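Per reviewer request, we include the raw input and output of the structure prediction for the construct analysed in the revised manuscript.
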Amino acid sequence: MHGLCFYYGVSREEIADASGLSRENATTYLKTLETLDLIERITPVTEPEAKKGLYKIRDPFFSFWFRFVRPNKRQIELELERNVWEGVREEFNMYLGQVFERICCEVLVKMAKKNLFPIRVGKIGKWWWKETEIDLLGLEKKENRALAVEVKWTDLDYHESKRLLSELTAKAQQIHNVKESILGIMAKKIENKDKIRSEGFIAIDLKT
């Protein structure tokens, strides 16, 4: 399935088309891989029972191997690591962004367990609807409130952070059955975190 971003999340239909399998056979193989805990099926956090979900490799080690090592195995054996690195540098940074997002989710879960948010978050996950996507969304069902967080594996200055939060505000307004959203950003480094927090937002980086 060369070129298929199984590492970042793809649909059953995309997997079937890329592999040449029928939809039925693809489903059988995917269920087997899920049983072996090698892949996971993700759905919008607001729709855990959604029929259409995305599949992704569960283990970061396998994800790294199939994305960067296996396609370049021969070059690595020939000790052409530098050439391999130049070819994958940009996508490797994207890969780190996905790993960082997973870590951020774990951090938010731990914070939620300690009741460190203005709302009581019951579950956290990705959310998407049509062309709109929120990296991490925490839900408080009782009061129909949510915690929406944008994740960036990069350094953000104050103006970039405010732009992302403005875009996040518009995205959060599209979430069905949510009356109020607490907004936040998580990044490698965030300039003027205290100022952003004083404005009512959550701001977390590697130094926090």
